Prior knowledge:
This protein is of the alpha+beta class.
Amino acid sequence: MAVYTELTKSDISEFLNSYKIGDLITFEGIIEGVENSNFKLITSKNNFILTIFEKRVDLKDLPFFIKLMNHLYKKNIKCPCPIIDIDGNYIKEIKDKPSVIVSYVQGKWIKSIKNIHCEQLGQNLAKMHLASNDFKLSRYNSMGMNEWSSLFSNFNSERKSQYNEIYDIIKKELIFLKKEWPKDLPSGVIHADLFQDNVFFENDIFSGIIDFYFACNDFYAYELAICLNAWCFERDQSFNITKARLILNNYQKERPLIKKEKEYFPILSRGAALRFLLTRLNDLIFHPKDAKVNPKNPVEYLKILQFHQKIKSISEYGLDN
């Protein structure tokens, strides 16, 4: 989440006239994140989140995200519920940009990850994957493996002298992953961005998953690898095998991994690390000067990638046999 588009109380109050969610009492911009503009709205009826789509979200993908959240919400997955306006629309424009309002998920994201959080994350991630099994729509992963080379070419001529060493590592890794990437693993709709700020807890109890605007179809085990990267490395990028064990083994209680998923897990983990190394570099190099959000450090994911390059088996991540 972030704030790129400025809104006044008058702007939002006028916008809410076409909804039946009460009168605006107050609002605040949400700074965390790097993609869209987000505001917490407090109305006379409840709390809500207004999201304005800014960067990588394609307008044609919005119905997919809306229907996915509705689908998961109806299956008792803890996530936002999209709000419809008086004319039957979920997607509306504000400041000439597409936007949606969704229900507010109680709780907050945790800055200090504990074992209890990892345990619940693994279990609820598997439940989400199972709940999306019968979702009829699909969306191509625009940040998936097939797009990494073009993303890299988008910025590899910018500030080259500053990033020469990183660029050389990326080039070699792209060649390796293109050759080794699996072709056929269990797949379906994944969230694709399950970092700490997209998972909420209330008194250390899981309360919901938010921000589905990277959701797409890909390997379930790839999403599990994204989660290990985001949740199991400490501030110095050292790997916490206890946290990884809790995520992996609690995921398996709901959805057991097949043999092939386990075999390819180190490859998927390398790919997950490279994906965020690429997007963080891209965001750093092309960071808007007026954006009220700081780009994230890409070097963190370089170190994570280098860790995965030494791993040979999923057992080294803590998976029980």
